[in-house]
Amino acid sequence: MFKRYPQLQSGFLAPSESMVKKPEPIPTTPASSLLNRQPTRTQQDLFYVPELDDLLNTIIQRPILLRDFEFQEKTLETIGKAFNGMSFSSFVSLQAENPGISQVHTDFLDETIACVLGLKENRNISVSTWSSVISAANPPHGGFKPTALNAKYNEYKFTQMTLGVFMVLWIRRLGYSDLLLSMQTIFGRRSLHAIMGGTV
Predict the structure, then answer these.
(1) Is the pLDDT at 91 greater than 80, yes or no?
(2) What is the average pLDDT score of the chain?
(3) CA–CA distance from 50 to each of 8, 128, 184 (Å)?
(4) For residue 195, with 0-12 CB atoms within 10 Å meaning exposed, 13-18 middle and 19 or more buried, which class applies?
(5) C-alpha to C-alpha distance for 43 and 24, rounded to whole angstroms
(6) Exposure check for the chain: N or C terminus, fewer CB within 10 A?
(7) How far apart are CA 93 and CA 40, in angstroms?
């Protein structure tokens, strides 16, 4: 039986419906009508994981919590729930069913995997910029090949890694803040500002 997965505001497909929600509709005002800034389909119809947005907002207000063990545990638990038991490799494969994927999404996943596996020392684009880049991505053009991406890293046992093992490597190689910002890039909410290419 064919299963439909919710499409996130980032353009990725979510592994489960259990953690996602749609944002509240943005009221239309005369000023927004004049500026032609009506709520977009991305805002109205697509999903995000509010718990991850809340965690990021908490870190923005209290950066010291990045070193707090209980906060780190809560974050990892929330990420695990968002993936619904799926490995990162399976998440990549899931995107083969996704009509909303662009080459930019592929580049983000490719760079992330390479850095986490230690094949690349640093990102080409800072993780804090990726959310804006993905929000401004061009419409999909059929360039996404998840099986090729998984095959590319298969010799490094990427497809055999659980999400937990992959996250441990992620924190060790890129840092805890990179993990959290990346999860917000995938699962977080897009404001109109972000959709138009602004920062998160």
Answers:
(1) yes
(2) 81
(3) 12, 18, 10
(4) middle
(5) 9
(6) N
(7) 28
For Cα atoms 39, 200, 26, give the angle at the middle one, nearest 5 degrees: 20
pTM confidence score: 0.81
Tens-place pLDDT, residues 45-87 = 688 899 998 998 898 899 999 899 999 999 999 999 999 999 9
Helix pair 127-135, 176-187: axis angle to 10 deg: 10
Residue 97 has a pLDDT of 82
- For the chain, the domain total comes to 1
Find the largest Cα–Cα distance for the chain: 57
Is 146 a domain residue?
A: yes
DSSP state of 7: B
- Per the model's pLDDT, the better-predicted residue between 185 and 41 turns out to be 185
Q: What is the DSSP track for 95-115?
A: GGG-TT--HHHHHHHHHHHHH
Radius of gyration of the chain (CA): 17
Residue 163 lies in a domain: yes
Within a domain: residue 200? no
- What is the token pair recorded at 130? 């990726």
* Chain center to CA of 141: 20
Kindly indicate the confidence band of residue 133, based on its pLDDT and cuts at 50, 70 and 90: confident
Contacts for 19 with CB less than 8 Å, ≥ 6 apart: 49, 51, 81, 82, 84, 187
Locate tokens 């490597």: which residue? 169
Amino acid at 97: E
